[in-house]
């Protein structure tokens, strides 16, 4: 499988601020890739480098097989972009702007799909830019992006401001794009959106990639919560590798364990005799909170 | 040619967005110059009258500083003299606004990001902005040519190209300014300041040299337009100088644009303090308007110094020419020619100060429509207090910059501090009246708030070119500046000053009353 996006060791500074500090990102062709990280982690800077709006200080960046800075125009014909904060011109209608974006992509828009998307997103294309709400401005950019036949969709927090119904429509559109073999880079803070849509995710912090993989892989790298009621004393669970936050209240044991160290812990519990056992895989929220807040890069 | 990909679409976007403003600018600028033969022809209908006007105007240094020397006493020559500089300045203002609007403003608002994510070359945004400016200046030039062709095609062509060319010089100045700052407002300020400097240089050069050949005049692009000498001995090579400046500035702007990121600029934005002291609406408004106030104040002080230095010589050159004296006095003079010169300059500063005041009032309107006022007014801040926060720097700032101009004039002149400062402050009632008109429009008819600029522009045009057109006094009286006493002079008359101040207060109060009653423009 080829890669639609391949970034290694990307650096970008603004004055003394190091926005990107050796970031890596690989997006395979045909996948929906989640791009996550706390505010200010460098997600939008990366996307702007990928769009050739910013010039990388150093590092290798390849987009659709080309150089996003040198081949910007040719590459932009093959991608569509939706920013998180869409600003429109006060005196142009939404429909005008959608067609403008389509023409600027050089390929124009599929009229039937444009009409269908306007219908699905319940957008009034005759209203002028100044009268749209944030969600409706967002829809203008989304309709323009999905109505294009771009190979790659670059979406930077595209659903901020959309209502839950429109969020559903958006998710359907992303799935349809993937079914047609399109690649999607989705930067988002909405974890349920990431969980339902993304094949793989990359988590960035302070300009570096701290984790990349499928959600299953990421889960595997984190901790499982275990609560057990035992028949006898639990013994020295403390001494087992990978056990955290152990709390023992009589015969009731609560602990967290690195998921790949689960076996020895379960064996120790069985030795004591298990009356009841609950094991919860890490929620996505826990996964992200841990990565967002950790000071050191997870192994 | 991938660097230019998408230029056509972006140019069409610019023309579509400016479908109203571009034709209006072109019609006002071109139409004004094109109307010259009709208005001046009726006034000076004999060759003798025109020759006398030309001689007296060229002999008069303060007239030259406003309009430049007369190069030909044909009707076409008088139109080129009277309207050439004014038309060139108007074309320059329109051009710099258009270019910044389609370059830096697009980047500042973030719209450029989504455009540049399309198949848009790196040179396309700047190219399309310059093409929009070229379309505007071409329209202006065509109107000028059409209006003046009857007076001789060669002169009409020279004047049309000089005016359109000056527009393009400042379009490219704006293209350069847009590379240096992240703020569209500041980019317009830089380009506008360059235009002001060019005007002052030309004025200072022409005041001391009746041939337009002063080095100061040649330093100024506005002076180049004059030195094309339309309807005189046309000097076509000066047009080549204008074209070369446009080409050089365009190349430099492209070079700079290629060396920066989208949205970035060469003057980096410095980090601000981590904690702030702003606590009141007034402090916030003052903070927002501080830059404009300092810029205007510095410009006025500098301009005052230059014009003040010219005042001494003004009396020498007019001599005994009765016609010159008469027209000079109609321009705002009293018998004493030095006083008359200073009074003319003070009144010029007054009309420019009105532009500052209207801009400062309408800043509040921008705050409102951009949504920035909404969270403030959703707090414990009342509308009137918020509005007052913006009106104080507008009305008070006008007083400060006029004092700066007066101080500059007195320093340059080397004396009469009291009368000159007083004369500068005597402009305030008229300035405040126009600021009051803007407040009323903003408060009562927010959709038409931009008409505040039109009102100030109309008064500027009436004051600058109205008197020479022999417009009926009733028309000239539309401008509050027409009612001010001519100061410095022997007898200050208080009645019009008090009446205008009362009118300004009433207009402002009515505007604030409207603001309290209407919906916010969110």
Word description of this protein:
The complex is a heterodimer of chains A (299) and B (522). Chain A is of the alpha/beta class and 299 residues long. Helix content of chain A is 33%, strand content 30%. Chain A has helices spanning 43-50, 72-76, 94-104, 111-120, 134-147, 164-179, 191-197, 215-220, 262-272, 284-293, and strands at 3-14, 17-28, 32-36, 58-63, 79-82, 152-156, 183-187, 200-205, 208-214, 223-230, 243-249, 252-258, 274-280. The radius of gyration of chain A is 23 Å and the shape is elongated. The two termini of chain A are 26 Å apart. The mean pLDDT of chain A is 88. Chain B is mainly α. Chain B has helices spanning 7-17, 21-34, 36-43, 47-59, 61-67, 75-102, 104-109, 111-116, 124-148, 153-180, 184-208, 215-219, 221-227, 236-258, 281-318, 322-330, 337-369, 373-378, 383-413, 417-425, 428-444, 451-465, 473-476, 494-517. In chain B, helix 17 (337-369) runs parallel beside helix 21 (428-444). The two termini of chain B are 42 Å apart. The chains are: A alpha/beta (299), B mainly alpha (522). The interface between A and B is medium-sized, with 34 and 28 residues. Chain A: One of its GO terms (molecular function) is ATP binding.
Task: Briefly summarize what is shown.
The complex is a heterodimer of chains A (299) and B (522). Chain A is an alpha/beta fold and 299 residues long.
Q: What does the average pLDDT of chain B come to?
A: 89
What is the makeup of the main sheet of chain A? 6 strands, mixed
| Sheet with most strands of chain B | none
Shape of chain A: elongated
Instruction: Give the chain pair forming the largest contact, with residue counts.
Output: A-B, 34 and 28 residues
Secondary structure: helix percent of chain B: over 70%
Enumerate the strands of the largest sheet of chain A in spatial order, edge to edge or round the barrel.
5-6-7-3-8-9
Number of helices of chain B: 24
Work out the radius of gyration of chain B. Answer: 23 Å
**Strand fraction of chain A:** 25-35%
Topology order of chain A in helix (H) and strand (E) letters: EEEHEHEHHHEHEHEEHEEEHEH
Q: Please bin the fraction of helical residues of chain A.
A: 25-40%
The residue-averaged pLDDT of chain A reads 88
Choose one word for the global shape of chain B: globular
